[in-house]
Amino acid sequence: MGSKERAVSTLRSRDLITRVTRIPAKIRLVRLQSETRASGGSDRDETGAVLILALAFILAIGLVVGTLADWASNSLRNTSQFQSASELHYALSSATNTAIESIRYSPLPSNPSLAENNGQATPIGECWTPSSGSASTLTVDGYSVAVWCTTTIDLAQNTTRVVTLYTCLSTVTATQCASAPLLAAQVTYDDYPTGGGVTLTEQCNLENGACGFGQILDYWTWN
């Protein structure tokens, strides 16, 4: 083989070696690109899943917070209403107790008629002498409350006076209050001292000046 032929053979061998060595590099490059694409897709999938979970979590928190806020708002309204109702009940009770104690020792009417002294109920009227106007009113916790009384008298008995009390807001009339009171009560008074005494012929305040030795609450009814 001549030198020329050997040179050609050498060049061909080198070219073949170069090609062979380049093939793995190309394979590695293709594999690397494939792995990169696969890795990028996996990352995108994971990112999407995380976003969905985050949105679901935010939505759940929003629902919980909204429910709690609604519950708190209702609770505050209920508390306010309960407090208002409690204050009204206290005002009505206070006015009624005031009337019970006042009329016990200072009967009204102070000078009942003969018929009234013999069991005829007195017309509905004041329970104590008002400082102004024609109704027994008391203001408690901002509520103006009126109490109206009617009395049945039995001078010969220890159930000397049976007083029925009707309590309402002062914006209604005596007749309206008697027909639909917010609070109704009845009290029986004994105008005889312990051990009895001389039979009364007039109401206690007119005869001996002492009234209300005993007291029994017959009923106390909320409407």
Mean pLDDT, nearest integer?
A: 82
Percent strand equals: 15-25%
Q: Which regions have little confidence, pLDDT < 50, spanning 5+ residues? A: none
List how many beta strands DSSP finds.
Answer: 6
First-to-last CA distance: 132 Å
Order of helices and strands: HHEEEEHEHE
| Secondary structural class | alpha+beta
Give Rg in angstroms: 49 Å
Q: How would you classify the quaternary structure?
A: single chain
- Please give the largest β-sheet: 6 strands, antiparallel
Polypeptide structure, described:
- The chain is α+β, with helices and mostly antiparallel strands and 223 residues long.
- It has a domain at 91-222.
- Helix content is 52%, strand content 20%.
- The chain has 4 helices and 6 strands.
- Strands 1, 2, 3, 4, 5 and 6 form a 6-stranded antiparallel beta sheet that branches.
- The longest helix has 103 residues, at 3-105.
- It is rod-shaped.
- The relative contact order is 0.09.
- The mean pLDDT is 82.
In short:
The protein is α+β, with helices and mostly antiparallel strands and 223 residues long. Helices cover 52% and strands 20% of the residues. A hairpin with a 7-residue loop joins strand 3 and strand 4.
